[in-house]
UniProtKB/TrEMBL annotation, chain A:
It is a multi-pass membrane protein. It is an enzyme of class 7 (translocase). InterPro entries: NADH_UbQ_OxRdtase_chain4L/K, NUOK/Mnh_C1-like. This is NADH-quinone oxidoreductase subunit K. It is found in: Cell membrane; Membrane. It comes from the Bacteria. Keywords: Cell membrane, Membrane, NAD, Quinone, Translocase, Transmembrane, Transmembrane helix, Transport. It comes from Paenibacillus radicis (ex Gao et al. 2016). It catalyses: a quinone + NADH + 5 H(+)(in) = a quinol + NAD(+) + 4 H(+)(out). GO terms for cellular component: NADH dehydrogenase complex; plasma membrane. One of its GO terms (biological process) is ATP synthesis coupled electron transport. HAMAP family: NDH1_NuoK (MF_01456). Its EC number is 7.1.1.-. NDH-1 shuttles electrons from NADH, via FMN and iron-sulfur (Fe-S) centers, to quinones in the respiratory chain. The immediate electron acceptor for the enzyme in this species is believed to be a menaquinone. Couples the redox reaction to proton translocation (for every two electrons transferred, four hydrogen ions are translocated across the cytoplasmic membrane), and thus conserves the redox energy in a proton gradient.
UniProtKB/TrEMBL annotation, chain B:
It comes from Paenibacillus radicis. The keyword Transcription regulation does not apply. Gene3D superfamilies: NADH-ubiquinone/plastoquinone oxidoreductase chain 6, subunit NuoJ. GO terms for molecular function: NADH dehydrogenase (ubiquinone) activity; quinone binding. Its EC number is 7.1.1.-. This is NADH-quinone oxidoreductase subunit J. Residues 180-189 have a biased composition (Gly residues). Belongs to the complex I subunit 6 family. It is an enzyme of class 7 (translocase). The keyword Cell cycle does not apply. It catalyses: a quinone + NADH + 5 H(+)(in) = a quinol + NAD(+) + 4 H(+)(out). Pfam families: Oxidored_q3. NDH-1 shuttles electrons from NADH, via FMN and iron-sulfur (Fe-S) centers, to quinones in the respiratory chain. Couples the redox reaction to proton translocation (for every two electrons transferred, four hydrogen ions are translocated across the cytoplasmic membrane), and thus conserves the redox energy in a proton gradient.
From TrEMBL, chain C:
The lineage of its organism: Bacteria, Bacillati, Bacillota, Bacilli, Bacillales. It comes from the Bacteria. The gene is nuoL. This is NADH-quinone oxidoreductase subunit L. Gene3D superfamilies: 1.20.5.2700. Residues 136-422 form the NADH:quinone oxidoreductase/Mrp antiporter transmembrane domain. GO terms for biological process: ATP synthesis coupled electron transport; electron transport coupled proton transport. GO terms for molecular function: NADH dehydrogenase (ubiquinone) activity; NADH dehydrogenase activity. It holds the Pfam family Proton_antipo_M.
Length: 100, 201, 629
């Protein structure tokens, strides 16, 4: 079963990556990033059961990841709101401050 | 090729993976942002089911609570706070999107190739399904106590920081300095007014 | 005590210091420059004389000091040093003496030239290099100074670089002598490779080749090295077939023609042969080649000189011819004969060039057909020039007679064919010198040079001194007094008895010399035989001789044209293949830059996409390695 789960995680990760690279709406980009993080979580949990040395460590690490992801989501949305106040848009094409 | 025996776990896996992939694809392809968030919540729930399948009940609960609950709600708030109407009117960049699609597919190809060619040894039997929550708790408070406490600090800092970033700036800072703040100060005035008018509607 | 010999390293320091001061001074200090340059060569001359007098003592041994470590490679150490032998000290006196005379003379000849200080600087640098060349104790150091001398020659030939002909002559001299230099360099490399212990100093060379350590080097290699050294000498001393640069080198200022292209630098080739005589004499084939090249050059250049009309070109071909004598003497095994002729020739040829300079200074032309009747107006020049011409023609008791006679005696003993050739060349020498002298100084003025007057004392005094030397310099070696050859070879002065051959050679030599002068007198003074006699009979031969047997033209057809063709082919290749590649690289870089500039649009997603593609390429390369390795 292990390869199936891993393939599943890879599919999820690649969809998230595509969304993060292509989507114009900043909220959707954030969502895509969450998708990628979830794919990683899935990998951690799969290896905690089907890995060479199964243990609960993978689950603990996935808990940490979820926590960090939650914090990331909160900070991301906050930055998004601040950016929206400054620029009046959530279109990531308009966020080209790095060019200057 | 896949040489998988067709049992109950596989059936469940198949159902959950269908939910997840459909939700992810819908999230990418839907037009309205709110719909996207809802299909995202579906993905999160499907993942939680898959976690249960992998004997990680506590992580599944946390997944439902934090992702399907908190993060989705946070995103909806984010959408509400910003201008969610312009999600449809995206201009198309075919080269960029094509390259991104090729890149993502190539990455998947590489990962798939790696997964298929790796010879995974047979795992030892996994125990800890019954008292999952208690064992995780014991682990967290023994071996991982320092990261756990650090995470609590991280969460506190992140939430305070988020509030600090996202709160509306006091009016006096907005109007106080003229020259160099004009560009920045001028920005918030428009959307705020827009937001207020929309709330009024 | 050999105090002066041990301080011989000071001799090149004086001209070097003069050179450094002169280039530091700038162009405005004209009088200072003259004094400084002359003082430098005077100091060097005095010290050289002291060294020579010390060497004349009965117990003089060769002195060499090699204290300075130059290059250390592993166990091998290349040392630099100087060596004073009898040959060296004689050359030192010749070089510094002629250099002093030329320095003084130039004060008059060049006094109106704008770049006078530069000129004196070059002359000082040349004097330094030439002294260094003579003093060098190993062949590599000699080569360094050899090249420095070549550079000075190049600079001074092209001194009036505003004239296209001077530029062309300078380039020609540099490129043609380069062929010889390459030969010498190859010889040095071969010596380095085959010598025991990679020794390059002359003492080791002497030991290896002279003591009969025949096992060290095969005769083939020895011949090869000797021929390459000969090639170096041919290039520097203007021997056939590399003589073409020397007549063109007369584009330089006349004092330079006297110093470099008559007395000293061109003699460096002969000096090199004398210095490495141990190597050359170890190979019979190389000796034969040397002798025949010398003999052929002597007669060949002498016939060309017959038909020239430019006073300096006549003297230039005469120099080539006389250098041929010296090379021939060395090839016949008579180093002392070659060096003796070098010694006397330096004085009378420098004198002739200075006289020619004096004439050119007065009449502002170099064409002897436009001169005439100058003898009455320029008495000093005429008398000194006559002495030089008689010395060159080999009329006793002038110095040229004794040295030429020494060579011809050797030739008669060793190789009768070369004796005849030498005799013919001597006849031609006498003929062209009388033609030159009578056309310039006798008869009536052929064009209006009303304001001709004798040159200033600063120019005539060096000429008088050189004339005196030209008279007496020959008596250091006569058939009855073999002092020079004994001194040079380091043994006690032995009474060389040539017997009948000497008398025969002397009689023949005087005979052809007198005959040549008499014929010249008939042609150009008495006009009993019309000067157009030859031109009427054999116009094509005359033209061929006048053009130097079309050697330059042959070079143009055989070497320059094919090289040009190859060059233009390569130029096309360069333009379209290499240039195209370069331009394509440039265009590619520009395009990549434009692409990268478009890529850096400040949007995170673009950057992320680029990072993704980069990652995939990296992973693909790493993973793909297992398939193609």
């Amino acid at each position: 079963m292990l390869p199936s789960y891993l393939t599943m995680a890879a599919i999820l990760f690649c969809i998230g990556l595509y969304g993060a690279l292509v989507k114009r709406n900043a909220v959707v980009v954030l969502l895509s990033v969450e998708l990628m993080l979830n794919a990683v979580n899935l990998n951690l949990i799969v290896f905690s059961k089907y890995g060479v040395a199964p243990s609960l460590t993978g689950q603990v690490f996935s808990l940490f990841t979820i926590t960090v992801a939650a914090a990331e989501a909160a900070v991301g949305v906050a930055i998004l709101i601040a950016l929206f106040r400054a620029k009046g848009t959530v279109n990531v094409d308009e966020y080209d401050e790095m060019r200057r | 090729m896949f040489n998988i025996e067709f049992n109950g776990e596989f059936a469940a896996f198949f159902i959950f993976s269908t939910i997840i992939v459909c939700g992810a694809v819908l999230m990418i392809s839907l037009q309205k942002v709110v719909h996207m968030v809802i299909s995202m919540a579906g993905v999160f729930l499907g993942l939680a089911g898959m976690f249960v399948l992998l004997e990680a009940e506590f992580v599944a609960f946390v997944q439902v609570l934090i992702y399907a609950g908190a993060v989705s709600i946070l995103m909806i708030f984010g959408i509400m706070m910003t201008n969610h109407q312009d999600a449809g009117g995206e201009k198309v960049l075919p080269l960029h999107e094509g390259l991104a699609a090729i890149g993502a597919l190539a990455l998947f190809g590489l990962l798939f190739y790696a997964i298929r060619t790796t010879d995974f040894p047979d795992p030892l039997p996994f125990q800890g399904g019954e008292e999952n929550t208690m064992k995780i708790g014991q682990l967290l408070y023994t071996g991982y106590i320092v990261p756990f406490e650090l995470l609590s600090i991280l969460l506190t800092v992140a939430f305070i920081g988020s509030i600090a970033i996202a709160r509306r700036l006091p009016e006096k800072i907005n109007g106080a300095s003229g020259g160099d703040n004009a560009g920045i100060g001028g920005g918030p005035a428009g959307p705020t007014a827009q937001l207020q008018t929309k709330e009024a509607e | 005590m050999e105090f002066y010999t041990q301080s011989a390293w000071l001799i090149p320091i004086f001209p070097l210091a003069a050179f450094l001061l002169l280039i530091a001074l700038g162009r405005s200090y004209r009088t200072t420059a003259m004094l400084l340059g002359s003082a430098g060569s005077l100091a060097a001359f005095v010290l050289s004389l002291l060294v020579l007098f010390e060497r004349l003592g009965p117990d003089a041994v060769d002195y060499s000091i090699r204290s300075f470590k130059w290059i250390v490679i592993g166990d091998y150490t290349l040392r630099l040093g100087f060596e004073v032998t009898n040959l060296t000290s004689l050359m030192l006196v010749v070089i510094t003496g002629v250099s002093l005379a030329v320095n003084v003379y130039s004060a008059g000849y060049m006094k109106n030239d704008e770049r006078l200080t530069v000129f004196y600087g070059y002359v000082a640098l040349f004097t330094f290099s030439m002294i260094g060349l003579v003093l060098a104790d190993n062949i590599l150091l000699l080569y360094i100074f050899w090249e420095l001398v070549g550079v000075c020659s190049f600079l001074l030939i092209g001194f009036w670089y505003a004239r296209p002909s001077a530029r062309a002559a300078a380039k020609k001299a540099f490129i043609v002598t380069r062929i010889g230099d390459a030969g010498l360099l190859l010889a040095i490399l071969l010596l380095f490779w085959y010598m025991p212990g990679h020794a390059l100093d002359f003492t080791s060379i002497y030991n290896v080749f002279h003591e009969g350590q025949s096992g060290v080097m095969t005769s083939g290699i020895t011949t090869f090295i000797a021929l390459l050294i000969l090639l170096g000498a041919i290039g520097k001393s203007g021997q056939f077939p590399l003589h073409v640069w020397l007549p063109d080198a007369m584009e330089g200022p006349t004092p330079i023609s006297a110093l470099i292209h008559a007395a000293t630098m061109v003699a460096a080739g002969v000096f090199l042969l004398a210095r490495t005589f141990d190597i050359v004499s170890a190979s019979e084939a190389a000796m034969q080649t040397t002798a025949y090249i010398g003999g052929f050059t002597a007669i060949f250049a002498a016939t060309i000189a017959l038909a020239q009309n430019d006073i300096k070109r006549i003297l230039a071909y005469s120099t080539v011819s006389q250098l041929g004598y010296m090379v021939m003497a060395i090839g016949l095994g008579s180093v002392s004969g070659g060096i003796f002729h070098l010694f006397t020739h330096a004085f009378f040829k420098a004198l002739l060039f200075l006289g020619a300079g004096s004439i050119i200074h007065a009449v502002h032309t170099q064409d002897i057909r436009e001169m005439g009747g100058l003898g009455a107006k320029m008495k000093t020049t005429a008398w000194t020039f006559a002495i030089g011409a008689l010395a060159l023609s080999g009329i006793p008791p002038f110095s040229g007679f004794w040295s030429k006679d020494a060579i011809l005696t050797t030739a008669l003993d060793e190789n009768p064919v070369l004796f005849v050739v030498g005799l013919a060349a001597a006849f031609c020498t006498a003929l062209y010198m009388s033609r030159l002298f009578f056309l310039v100084f006798a008869g009536k003025p052929r064009s209006g040079h009303a304001a001709v007057k004798e040159s200033a004392a600063v120019m005539t005094i060096p000429m008088i001194i050189l004339a005196a030397l030209s008279v007496v310099a020959g008596f250091i070696e006569t058939p009855w007094n073999g002092w020079l050859s004994g001194w040079l070879s380091g043994s006690e002065a032995v009474e060389t008895v040539h017997g009948g051959s000497s008398i025969a050679a002397m009689v023949a030599s005087i005979g052809v010399g007198a005959l040549g002068i008499y014929l010249g007198w008939l042609f150009f003074v008495k006009k009993s035989i019309g000067s157009g006699f030859m031109a009427a009979k054999l116009p094509s031969l005359l033209r061929a001789v006048e053009r130097g047997y079309y050697i330059d033209e042959w070079y143009r057809v055989i070497i320059v044209k094919p090289l040009r063709g190859l060059g233009s082919t390569l130029a096309v290749f360069d333009e379209y293949v290499i240039g195209g590649t370069v331009r394509m690289t440039g265009a590619l870089t520009t395009a990549a830059g434009r692409f990268a500039a478009r890529l850096s649009n400040g949007k995170v997603q673009t950057y992320g996409l680029a990072a993704l593609i980069g990652c995939i390429v990296l992973i693909a390369v790493i993973v793909g390695r297992r398939f193609w390795s």
